[in-house]
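ok so for the tutorial part 2 we go from a plain amino acid sequence to predicted structure tokens. step 1 is just haveing the sequence, like this:
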Amino acid sequence: MIPYLDLKAQYRSIKDEIDAAVLRVLDSTQYVLGEEVAAFEREFAGYCRASEAVGVNSGTSALHLALLAAGVGPGDEVITVPFTFVATVSAICYTGATPVFVDIEPDYFTMDPSKLEAAITPKTKAIMPVHLYGQPADMDPIMEIARRRDVTVIEDAAQAHGSEYHGRRCGSIAGVAGFSFYPGKNLGAYGEGGAVTTTRAEVAARCRTLRNWGEEQRYEHRLKGFNYRMDGIQGAILRVKLRHLEAWTERRRQVAEWYGAALDPDTVRVPKARPGCRHVYHVYAVRTDDREQLRDVLGKRGIQTGVHYPIPVHLQPAHADLGYRAGDFPVAEQAAREVLSLPIFPEMTREQVQTVAAAVSGARV
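step 2 — the prediction. this is what the tokens look like for a chain of 365 residues:
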């Protein structure tokens, strides 16, 4: 069997480092926040080329706090895309604001800047582009529109650890961003985790207060905050894994290159990388006119796949109250019908890639 992701292989490759880091936290008894989390925050901020990082308990929490730090609340609108994991939209809803969607670019699966300005209203408080699959959104035109219209931009970088847009690293381009460290991410914890990265000291300070019950001093609650703290063990684990992230990223990019050379263009359309940018391939999503048939063939040959994502958010039953209908965002809807995520992980061998590619070719009718 070829797994979609092989976390066991990854753990085995760094087992001694991980075990030592976990034991260090157990010995310190700093189980919530603490020195390991603080050290990870400094190291991850440096990696993202941001001024500060604020560790939290999930990527959703990171987006929620980033929105709150930008002053988003009831009565506001936040523009994002319908082709994303639902957490993007849930974080907006948590603030009491209303999500407003614009369609995606057909080649890159990210926000279409040409559709953005028409969606801005007097209620628009923020724009949240999603760096989907490890591909950076087209940030220059998005930022230019936001500056002209005096709207905040918050990057959803949950899938974009190390991704770059024309030499600028995702997580530092807009001044504030949210990351996820869900176990399957390119930089994944051994449980849940997330971080807000920012170039603004006031944003970091507000997020630190909000993540810890609104406390600035013990038992003195300045704000109505949340229990969004990162565990010490997760901070220690992420510190270890961060040291390996660049090597893992380059290996993912190598696997993607192997796929591009080996896959049958008559069966699937391979993902495109935005020119001048660094795609980190959190997901390797091909497009096919008959996804279920291809997925079934691969499954029978022991090849695990995923679908990210089969239903765009505007058509999810949970968000029917937003009033959108099928046909409102045709590019996102077509992508949802066609995408299939093939196995990709740093430990994947060229022989495994060839096996997957041969199975894809054999599925052609």
